[in-house]
Design goal:
2 copies of one chain form a homodimer. Chain A is α/β, with parallel strands linked by helices and 308 residues long. Chain A contains 12 helices and 10 strands. The first copy, chain A, has a single domain, classed as Alpha-Beta Barrel (TIM Barrel), CATH 3.20.20. In chain A, strand 3, helix 4 (84-92) and strand 4 (97-103) form a beta-alpha-beta unit. Chain A is globular, with a radius of gyration of 18 Å.
Chain lengths: 308, 308
């Protein structure tokens, strides 16, 4: 299915997964979980966000989390920033890898970061240009397939936005994000193949949600198309802000279990990851998702069902 | 992705989904749910099982269920039978479509139907041979990919068993069943393509579970390979007898939502199906699964998350 034998799984739980959790997770708990993820073999993580602490109180300890993460020498620590101002704050706090976020959909961008997409793109260009040479940048391209307000997003519109992003930064990795979980493998396959063909040499990532049960299917479609970097959240943490009660990000343990079963290496220990995922899913206020945790840690096997 | 524009979804909830539920579901409740499924557009259903009422008390009302189902003139009603004796009982009760079950894996067959696979195959041959000309037969080939006791099942072994089945009946549809939910899309794709190539003219179906989050991914892999008949269970009912707490059959609403989103017709109304699925998931003792129900019926949309 895949032409690659190694996939980089970016653990986004400490940012995307923790962010919607209401009760503040003590900073030391976050750091302990991040350490467990590191010990499980995670070497790339979106660890926190530099955002309005008033709008997202859960991310108020971004400086402490970043400082703690930077102690792991070989952990590639991304921090999310929604604007040039917050990018400056993150860099001042020691960030070596920024995740700038903007949305293809105007309505979602306005709702999420209170700017037009064009304004966000200009801020991204400014941030990328001013970036120290030893600092990396990724662009999280939200609503690359579907918008919670406007529905399906046309691939043509995505490609136009990508064109602008590519011009703004020669090196930025671009993550195509299925914000709503409503895309399907055929659409993922099409868009991933298009960007790989049209923008050779660029680094890409796929960020998917499992809201409609297609989390793993969409990740596999991206990998099958040639992507080698995929986001996931331990415990399936994340929820879906537009459908309370529904699950969110594709679970890291589901992705790792699937890839290993298909003979694709991730460098991650599933058992150690599950230890961390079980704790994450049990965090007060957490909206957990994924299947593999329940299948492997839910209960003990019992006898078969005799039908004859 | 698919070369077809119409897929037949076989609703197996009333058999595979109800079977593991402990508290007896009143027969009138079962019939009411079956009627809702019919009204939603389901035209093929595994409605009940003729099995030991002592081993599976939930199926004790098989005759009544079959009689009720036969009132829907254009509903293709499969009933599961594990042996020639139960096949005779089902035919005597008016069954027009039998689902004979046997397992590729010896251990699973012994555990499930207390016979060797060879003995089950002989009983299938006997049943198929004696079948009235207007009666259809399907073979549910359990553990076609993976066995709860022995792990991965080799495609070579499956193809050998299929060879015997094909010889035993020229017309039987064969359903490749991923009993444990542990197979992956690459393996599904391989085996589906192999059987289509090696046994031209034969009818096939794919029966998958969502225990590890690959329910939809595996269904899509089968369809992509050329299969046009797939099983699913409304509400994701089914559980997994080998991993209590884990979910079971892929949910019909997840499959239907996905296929419609990909432009593939099923003849099923998603909204009417969801009405039935919500009730099924709420049955006392039910182990429900799937994602789409929660995403579309779980709660009302709320505002976006502002990060800036």
């Amino acid at each position: 299915m895949s032409s690659t034998d190694k996939i980089t799984v970016v653990e986004v739980g400490p940012r995307d997964g923790f962010q919607p959790i209401g009760p503040f997770i003590p900073t030391e708990t976050k750091i302990a979980l991040i350490e467990e993820l590191y010990k499980a073999g995670i070497r790339r993580m979106e660890a926190t966000a530099f955002v309005s602490a008033k709008a997202v109180p859960q991310m108020a300890d971004a400086v402490d989390i970043l400082t703690a993460c930077n102690r792991f020498g070989d952990l590639d620590v991304q921090v999310l920033v929604p604007s040039a101002r917050y990018a400056d704050q993150a860099l001042a706090a020691g960030a070596m890898h920024l995740s700038f976020v903007l949305s293809v959909s105007e309505k979602h961008n306005m709702n999420n970061v209170r700017r037009t997409t064009a304004d966000s793109l200009a801020e991204f260009a400014q941030t990328a240009k001013a970036l120290p040479s030893d600092t990396k940048i990724r662009l999280n391209l939200a609503t690359s397939f579907d918008c919670p307000f406007d529905g399906a997003v046309s691939p043509q519109r995505v490609l136009e936005v990508v064109e602008g992003l590519a011009a703004a930064s020669a090196n930025a990795e671009i993550a195509l994000c299925d914000t709503t979980g409503r895309t399907t493998p055929d659409a993922v396959s099409y868009l991933c193949r298009e960007v790989l063909t049209r923008f050779p040499g660029r680094n890409w990532a796929f960020h998917g949600h499992d809201t409609y049960g297609l989390g793993a299917a969409n990740v596999l479609a991206a990998i099958d198309a040639g992507f080698t970097v995929v986001d996931a959240s331990f415990g399936g943490l994340g929820g879906c802000p537009f459908a309370p009660g529904a699950t969110g990000n594709v679970a890291t343990e589901d992705v790792v279990w699937t890839l290993h079963k298909m003979g694709i290496d991730t460098g991650i220990s599933l058992e150690a990851l599950l230890d961390a995922s079980v704790q994450a899913a049990a965090l007060p206020g957490a909206s957990a998702g994924g299947r593999v945790r329940a299948a492997l840690r839910g209960a003990q096997p019992c006898a078969g069902m005799e039908v004859a």
